[in-house]
Amino acid sequence: MNSLSEELLDHIISEAVQPLPDRHSARYADLINVSMVSRKFHRITEPYLYRSIVISEKNNEQFLHTIRCCSGLSQYARELCIKQSCNITHEVLRLAQHLPGLHKLDLDLTSCKTSDLLPVLQLSSVTALCLSSVVARQVDDASPIDWGIANTAIASLEMSFSDPETWWEDCDEIWKFAAVFRNLKSLSIHSDYEGERKHTLNGPVFRCLVHAFRHAFETSLRSFSFKCNDVNHDYIYQSGVAVSGAFDAREILKQSQLESLEIDTMCLHRSSQEGKLRSQELGPSRLPASLRTLYLRHLVATGNLNPTERNLMHSDEAQCLSQLVNLGARRARFPNLEKMTLAISLPPLFEEVASRIVRVQARKVKLQLKLILMSEWDYVSDDTARSWPEYHATRDPRHSFYDPTFVRCA
Question: Is-contact 296 371, C-beta < 8 A?
Answer without folding.
Answer: no
